């Protein structure tokens, strides 16, 4: 498979260990094999429906949750490779959303309640559960679920925790490997001065400086001064 070979080279160029490369490429090959059984030829673009179908297939085949999550992590890396190589533009795998939740110290899948179900339980608790025993049971039940949720929280520290929860644990580890002990300052303004100048020029003298200043994070006075100085050059 051409995609697998190129993916393997990509992982090696990015300094991955040989065992990691073997694991990632094997999982990507397994996913493509699943698509082939469905009569689908992989064209270089992942989609969330196919990934979710594959996950459900693994569940039906009684794979352990930890094994499924490992395969999803491999596919996430494959997804990143496809984006960086220009074959696709979107990230369709998010481990925080797609992986199977596992209680700490357990290898079994944990079924979690939706907000609607929790609301229904609390409504029953306040309006229909007359006996103290029933109320205590429900409260303890919800409390236990909250404890499991807290145990499952990301173990990483500070910014790495935020990256792991919002992007993925793999990216958090990569960021730590490359930027630990490095202080990074994120600029207040997202857009460069040059870009803002170009936006003002496209207005051909009709720019609403107040609107532009608010949109791009610069002061109106500074924008007018900057454009005036440029005109005098």
Describe this entry's structure for a reader.
The structure is a single chain. With 233 residues, this protein is mainly α. The chain has twelve helices and no strands. The protein has helices spanning 2-13, 18-37, 48-60, 65-84, 95-98, 115-127, 132-151, 158-166, 169-179, 193-201, 209-216, 220-232. The longest helix is centred in the N-terminal third of the chain and has 20 residues, at 18-37. It is elongated and about 70 Å long.
Can you tag this structure with a few keywords?
single chain, 233 residues, mainly alpha, 65% helix, 0% strand, elongated
Q: What is this structure, in a nutshell?
A:
This protein has 233 residues and is an all-alpha fold. It has 12 helices and no strands. The termini are far apart.
